[in-house]
Amino acid sequence: MLLRFNGNPSEYKEIFDSNLAILSSIDENSDFHKFIKYISDFTEINYEIVSLSLKRYLMISQEYYPENITKYNSKFIKINILVFLAGMVKRNLYSDRKSSATDYGKFQIFIDNWAPTVVEGFYGKDLIGSLKKEYSVLTEDFSMTGKVRVKHFFRYYKNLSKCFKMASVIEKKYKIKLMKYICNVFFSFISGMDLKERGFRGIVISGNDNGFNTIKAKASLCNIMLIQNGGRGYLSDSTFGYADCYLAMDSEQENVHRIKTGNLFKSTYNLGSLRLFNYLQSKEKAEFNFTYDILWISSWPVSGISKIYDSYYDVASEKNAIRLINELSNKGKYSIAYQCSYKGETEDLKIMNLYSENIKYFMRNKPIVYENIFLSNVILSTGSTVNIEALASKIKCGFVNMSDNELINYPFALGNLEYSKKTDISFEEFIEYIKDKEFAFDKYITQEANYAKKFLEITREYVK
Question: How many structural domains are present in the chain?
């Protein structure tokens, strides 16, 4: 049914488009429709949201974790459920009852602290501070919130068993495993039930827009506001998402792309980059003078790209892109800086003979990458979100794609901002082209100058 990604970037577009088309219409199949409807009925979560969760799970699994839908079996899952249940009973019997008695009902807004440092590093102190002036705000990792309680488990255990039976029919007929999906949905649902019973009815705000747990939020009757935290092109985790409100980084023309890739965002606002806004607020009166002709933003580790992305991009292509930068530096015509993306990157470059004495190297966030953006005339990368933020700052940028995956830099390749194997001019000529080009910056990203003010106005519409 679904095509397997095979580690060849040249075939990525064909496979992605095929799987997207198949999954977009999967609930027209009666077997899948009944399965989705059953989950929707017993969880009381909207059918379309459940449908999106299944499509998203299958799309992501097929690209990143194919073993999830090819190797899991019912016996293995059920044994793990019994082990989990035994541990759950023990925790519920012996845990400190006060630790599980948070009164969520007194909070109106839940800020998802999905990763270390995001409260200050992504949302920003000022934004959260302004929310706290008007509302009662809880800041926690949403994925870790809500207990899986024994009473909920046994209340819905028959529903879980029925899901397994329905899935077994689908598995035999379509050769696709759904056991892990069922467990993910079931435990998300009953942890969401716990949140609901403990009184939370507000809005969850999350910058984890490509990994948020929609089922848990909707089981707890929350509204969902997602904030785009990075460039979203043609990767499986950018498909079939849901939000009551989506704060997009890019331009309005990309709203069509989001629909095309199966997302359902009931309201979308194009506000630009929140991280960039927070940086500009702190540097409002600073003056910048160009120091570098070119700033290369490292996007992928040259020591080896994670296997989950090997169909999308490969190490050899990143090395070839860096070689182009090095060759340019050897001509002595341009001053070039290189912003590393991980600790130890310069050591890796030296080992692989990709280090240039003619380039100024900066460690990750030392200084913060935005400072170097404003000191550079042209920003280059394979496909970094920083390029998009450079455009928001009215700074010219280009993309370098030495793989055969033509989807990596959508939609920028359509605007002739990408250098690839098919480009019919030299790399140096491409740099000069970017330098001389008249950019329609707003075509790619709309940066709201009063992001915080607009954010608060939108939030007021969703707080119950």
Answer: 2
